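Consider the following input, taken from an annotated entry for Peptide methionine sulfoxide reductase MsrA (Vibrio plantisponsor).
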Amino acid sequence: MQQIYLAGGCLWGVQEFIKYVPGVINTLAGRANGTTHSTQTEYDGYAECVRVQFDEAIVSVEQLVEHLFEIIDPYSVNQQGHDVGLKYRTGVYSEDQAHLEAAKRYIASRADAAKIVVEVLPLTNFVPSDDEHQHRLTRVQEDHYLCHIPWDLLHKYRNAKSQ
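Applying the prediction step yields:
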């Protein structure tokens, strides 16, 4: 099992979307690359993200990054939908250099590569979000109005599995 960390604005929507992608085994909402090991501190430079554990025999890093691009504006700096701020930046993080190289290859292969502002960096720190933020849009669907991703897109792969 492999793992990679994907940031695409508010972590609620990223987790709700990516957990249904075939090959994804488990997800955990959290914070990447901050300086502290707690959710009870002032903002410390982190990006809201989701740890994605996946089966590389079913889904590749390139495919996961391509899925991330389905739900983000890859040209937007520190903003996704109505969420604005450094913690809402887009990114791909990993402790595995091969994952980072694969993400960079995917981005470089796109015709719009020069305009893309998604950061691809080594993971230096991950702090899981508090329980109230885990699978939030599954548990509290009425909070979807806070998410910039349309409901049908959030469940694109869940709906495909049920057909």
